[in-house]
């Protein structure tokens, strides 16, 4: 009998250790905690979402799919490849529509649609932002003449900018730094700079890296919604979290197997975007496409 008790205790200990080491315990705790939050009317409520496209390989792309943005004018998604420097256009069903080779960059990790054919690209290692225009671009873009902004922040070789999102209402660009430490920055003045005029730049840190509200292990992407709510994506914690305009966490979409109808965990979530219908799109390395739709109450 004693041996049975010891064996059961050992199994429980192993289970507890696994829950903490894998991040599952944190995932369950934050999911339960946020399920008790009273949501404002404009909240997405990520707990309502279920995957209707999952683990779909994007044909024509073998590896390095990273970042995502929605262009409401074209009704399509745009992403980048961080190995071979390419900008790619995807349909809402995850089909490859267009490829543009980018010359003069390395390690692309972020893209955000601004307006018309204008986008911002983010390089991770150099922490450089590039303002580009695709109006007269066919299949090759050279960025040598593109307006750029480099921010020397927490210099590390591969822990720089991981995502960007344009806040149309606030006329500012939001960027996330992966970790060591994690940062959420708001940059004003770069996108709206006028030719020949001095750069009027302002950088604000929206979330302190030590804030208990920033409970993920890392940050891999960001999306600003028209409601003023913010979505932060974490690869290592395998979650997408919705925040109110004042920085309060409201709801969570789990990206582990069993959450949101997922048959398998999302391996390496790198980009998130939301379309005009409220559908959520996530891309994962190497070349996986996911779509989540809200369920009726």
Tags for this entry?
single chain, 297 residues, mainly beta, Neuraminidase, 2 domains, 4-stranded antiparallel beta sheet, 2 helices, 21 strands, 11% helix
Provide the number of structural domains: 2
Oligomer: single chain
Number of helices: 2
Helix content: 10-25%
Summarize, please.
The chain is mainly β and 297 residues long. The protein has helices at 2-22, 24-35; strands at 49-57, 65-71, 76-82, 85-90, 96-103, 108-115, 118-123, 128-133, 140-142, 148-150, 161-167, 172-177, 183-188, 202-207, 221-224, 230-234, 239-243, 249-254, 269-274, 280-284, 288-294.
Describe this structure in words.
- There is one protein chain.
- It contains 2 helices and 21 strands.
- It has 2 domains: 1-36, no CATH class; 41-294, Neuraminidase (6 Propeller).
- 37% of the residues are buried.
- The strands form 5 sheets. A 5-stranded mixed sheet has the order 2-3-4-5-9, with no helix packed on it. A 4-stranded antiparallel sheet has the order 1-21-20-19, with no helix packed on it. A 4-stranded antiparallel sheet has the order 6-7-8-10, with no helix packed on it.
- β20 (280-284) and β21 form a beta hairpin.
- It has 297 residues and is mainly beta.
Give me the secondary-structure topology.
Blueprint: H1 2-22, H2 24-35, E1 49-57, E2 65-71, E3 76-82, E4 85-90, E5 96-103, E6 108-115, E7 118-123, E8 128-133, E9 140-142, E10 148-150, E11 161-167, E12 172-177, E13 183-188, E14 202-207, E15 221-224, E16 230-234, E17 239-243, E18 249-254, E19 269-274, E20 280-284, E21 288-294
Parallel strand pairs: 5-9
Antiparallel strand pairs: 1-21, 2-3, 3-4, 4-5, 6-7, 7-8, 8-10, 11-12, 12-13, 13-14, 15-16, 16-17, 17-18, 19-20, 20-21
């Amino acid at each position: 009998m004693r041996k049975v008790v010891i064996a059961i205790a050992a199994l429980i200990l192993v289970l507890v250790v696994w829950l903490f080491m894998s991040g599952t315990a944190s995932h369950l705790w934050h999911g339960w905690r946020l399920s008790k939050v009273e949501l404002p009317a404009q909240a997405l409520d990520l707990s309502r979402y279920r995957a209707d496209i999952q683990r779909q390989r994007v044909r024509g792309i073998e590896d390095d799919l990273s970042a995502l943005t929605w262009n409401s004018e074209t009704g399509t998604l745009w992403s980048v490849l961080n190995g071979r420097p390419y900008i790619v256009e995807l349909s809402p069903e995850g089909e490859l529509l267009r490829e543009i080779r980018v010359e003069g960059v390395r390690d692309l990790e972020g893209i955000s649609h601004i307006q018309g054919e204008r986008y911002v690209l983010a390089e991770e290692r150099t922490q450089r932002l590039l303002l580009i225009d695709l109006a007269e671009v066919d299949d090759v873009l050279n960025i040598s003449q593109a307006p750029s902004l480099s921010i020397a922040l927490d210099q590390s070789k591969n822990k720089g900018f991981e995502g960007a999102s344009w806040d149309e209402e606030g006329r500012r660009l939001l960027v996330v730094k992966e970790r060591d430490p994690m940062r959420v920055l708001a940059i004003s003045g770069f996108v709206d700079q006028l030719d020949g005029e001095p750069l009027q730049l302002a950088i604000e840190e929206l979330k302190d890296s030590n804030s208990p509200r920033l409970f993920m292990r890392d940050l891999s992407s960001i999306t600003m919604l028209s409601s003023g709510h913010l979505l932060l994506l974490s690869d290592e914690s395998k979650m997408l979290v919705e925040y109110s305009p004042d920085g309060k966490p409201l709801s969570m979409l789990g990206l582990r197997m069993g959450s949101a109808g997922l048959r398998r965990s999302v391996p390496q979530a790198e980009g998130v975007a939301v379309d005009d219908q409220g559908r959520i799109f996530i891309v994962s390395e190497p070349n996986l496409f996911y779509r989540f739709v809200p369920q009726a109450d």
